């Protein structure tokens, strides 16, 4: 309230001052005030109400956070000087077919002299509500006006209990779409210049949002980085419940204990590493590994250093596809994902990460739902309901590939092969489906949509046991390094808040820059060099990641140096 009064006062002052200066100068001066008034009255769209909540100047090397933000409470630091703006939107256009839409979004607007005339939209994570300020921190360093939506609610990532039909549609696609529509108008007005290019960068749920938007409106983005996309919500969630059920069923006879993920991961590494031809502590082709689980299976019911046959069956289930009525409804996790299984299977005594909340709140909307009630019917129900129309399964994006009167859009998609939260096989499946739905071939698709597998990388970032190269300037990676202290593992913050430490602003190492060169200079992304760090965050090794179907092929020389590798056929 006080803020609004103050900003009205400033606006009055501003317009009075404005009378005295010539109009061009007036526009630029007025446009660059980091104040609520600079953004008021800019957007006039039928059915849409825009409220500018806040505009705050952040100094060079400053920090930003938003108190009360449950999804993204962390403080991001090392920001360049910018204006941080918070906007609230309600949109009644869908009514009465769908409930009224309501969401907020944030913008980081660099100084006019640093603005690259482009907008970057950053995705969210998991089921979080809240503006993803931490991941937005990367964009302004390159000069992007950077935005992200709160997805229409405020919650932690593991919380699914917020679901109402309105919020599900907002989380599903409405909040992201509307946030970009409104922010494009606000940004052009603020700088007094039209935008040149629009980019997207998101991992996990962020990957889903990007694909969903590309399917919804081919003109929102010119280029998108799509990481480890949780695009298939309606199958991913029942799959998580299915493997959790396998753990809990039969009085937990097959439940893997936390230290047994370690036994599995170590044995998978021992058997699989060499099978890809390079004994380098990285499982580069998990699918090609022939794995014998008997080597760690022992008969006793309370084994030391091994697992029981019931536990072995659980592990085999997690690595297998989920088949319902003869259909593969979700591709299982790959070998090398085992270290991340603890996220869904929880502590030894607890239920799983999401605790069947998808069925409880989204599918059946019955707070009394217990895990014992789970059956494969949950998949059929999920397909029927398709909560929030969030699932990005309209694979024919030929409208994005070829846009009338405009250059076609570009997609750079990637997935870590050691991901134990979203199966990398679902990204390959998505790629395959796009090729067939657009009536195309793999070769032709590579001219506008490329998919990179990242051996040894876990979900979106980090590699732990394998210490495989994982940092290539992808969504959330720079902020993950800045936010290390918040993970409680006693590590200090590292990096510069953007790019890859030691390789700032170099498109050979930076997926976002590589994408801009593909879009703006028609330079296809033939490879990106990924980096792994030592404990002190000096460089441990580098290696190219390659567009599918190519893989990194070792030539000769230092195996830990990207120069010793090329992208070729395996
Ligand atoms: C579930 O039921 C509650 C209580 O009736 C309702 O408020 C909520 O909107 C429902 N959620 C969904 C996703 O339909
Ligand atoms: C409002 O909703 C309509 C219908 O869903 C959509 O086309 C439009 O882009 C939305 N606008 C904003 C700003 O949210
Ligand atoms: C798998 O491992 C078991 C136990 O070490 C061994 O007896 C068996 O021969 C192995 N199977 C194959 C196919 O190598
Ligand atoms: C994708 O297509 C390739 C080539 O046709 C095939 O080898 C692979 O099994 C497919 N994978 C999935 C998950 O659809
Ligand atoms: C990055 O490189 C570009 C092109 O060489 C240059 O224009 C820009 O100022 C650089 N940005 C930073 C922050 O170093």
Automatic annotation (TrEMBL):
Signal peptide position in this chain? 1-20
Write the record's keywords in alphabetical order, separated by commas: Calcium, Disulfide bond, Hydrolase, Metal-binding, Serine esterase, Signal
Task: Provide a Gene Ontology MF annotation, just one.
Answer: metal ion binding
What InterPro entries does the record tag this protein with?
A: AB_hydrolase_fold, Tannase/feruloyl_esterase
Q: What is its EC number?
A: 3.1.1.-
- SUPFAM superfamilies recorded: alpha/beta-Hydrolases
Which family does the entry's similarity section mention? Answer: Belongs to the tannase family.
Q: What is this protein called?
A: Carboxylic ester hydrolase
What organism is this sequence from? Lasiosphaeria hispida
């Amino acid at each position: 309230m006080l803020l609004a009064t103050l900003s009205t006062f400033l606006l009055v002052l501003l317009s009075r001052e404005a009378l005295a200066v010539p109009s061009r100068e007036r526009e630029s001066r007025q446009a660059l005030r980091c104040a609520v008034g600079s953004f008021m009255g800019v957007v006039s769209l039928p059915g849409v109400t825009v409220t500018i909540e806040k505009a705050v100047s952040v100094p060079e090397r400053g920090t930003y956070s938003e108190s009360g933000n449950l999804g993204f409470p962390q403080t991001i630091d090392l920001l360049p000087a910018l204006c941080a703006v918070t906007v609230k939107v309600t949109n009644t256009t869908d009514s009465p077919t769908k409930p009224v839409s309501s969401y907020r979004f944030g913008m980081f607007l660099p100084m006019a002299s640093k603005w690259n005339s482009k907008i970057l939209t950053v995705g969210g994570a998991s089921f979080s509500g809240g503006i993803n300020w931490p991941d937005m921190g990367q964009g302004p360093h390159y000069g992007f006006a950077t935005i992200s939506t709160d997805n229409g609610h405020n919650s932690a990532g593991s919380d699914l209990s917020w679901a109402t039909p309105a919020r599900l549609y907002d989380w599903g696609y409405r909040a992201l779409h509307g946030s970009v529509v409104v922010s494009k108008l606000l940004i052009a007005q603020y700088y007094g210049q039209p935008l040149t290019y629009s980019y997207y960068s998101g991992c996990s749920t962020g990957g889903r949002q990007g694909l969903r938007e590309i399917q919804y409106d081919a003109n929102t983005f010119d280029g998108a980085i799509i990481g480890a996309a949780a695009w298939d919500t309606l199958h991913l969630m029942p799959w998580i419940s299915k493997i959790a059920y396998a753990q809990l069923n039969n009085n937990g006879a097959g439940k893997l204990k936390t230290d047994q993920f370690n036994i599995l991961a170590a044995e998978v590494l021992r058997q699989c590493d060499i099978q890809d031809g390079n004994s380098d502590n990285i499982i580069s082709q998990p699918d090609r590994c022939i794995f014998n689980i008997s080597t760690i299976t022992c008969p006793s019911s309370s084994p030391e250093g091994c697992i029981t046959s019931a536990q072995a069956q659980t592990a085999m289930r997690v690595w297998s596809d989920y088949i319902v009525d003869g259909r593969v409804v979700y591709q299982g996790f790959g070998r090398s994902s085992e270290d991340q299984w603890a996220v869904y299977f929880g502590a030894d005594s607890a239920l799983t990460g999401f605790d069947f909340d998808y069925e409880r709140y989204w599918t059946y909307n019955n707070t009394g739902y217990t895990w014992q009630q789970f059956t494969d019917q949950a998949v059929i129900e999920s397909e029927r309901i398709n909560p929030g129309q969030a699932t990005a399964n309209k694979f024919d994006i030929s409208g994005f590939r070829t846009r009338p009167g405009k250059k076609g859009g570009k997609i750079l998609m990637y997935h870590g092969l050691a991901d134990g939260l979203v199966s990398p096989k679902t990204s390959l499946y998505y790629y395959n489906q796009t090729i067939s739905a657009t009536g195309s071939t793999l070769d032709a698709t590579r001219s506008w949509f490329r998919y990179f597998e990242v051996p040894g990388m876990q979900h979106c970032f980090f590699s732990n046991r394998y210490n495989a190269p994982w940092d290539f300037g992808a969504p959330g990676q720079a902020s993950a390094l800045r936010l290390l202290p918040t993970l409680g593992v006693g590590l200090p913050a590292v990096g510069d808040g953007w790019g890859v430490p030691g390789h700032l602003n170099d498109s050979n190492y930076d997926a976002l820059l590589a994408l801009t060169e593909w879009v703006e200079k028609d330079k296809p992304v033939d490879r990106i060099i990924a980096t792994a760090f030592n404990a002190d965050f000096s460089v441990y090794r580098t290696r190219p990641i390659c567009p599918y179907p190519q893989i990194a092929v070792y030539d000769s020389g230092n195996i830990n140096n990207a120069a010793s590798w090329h992208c070729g056929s395996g």
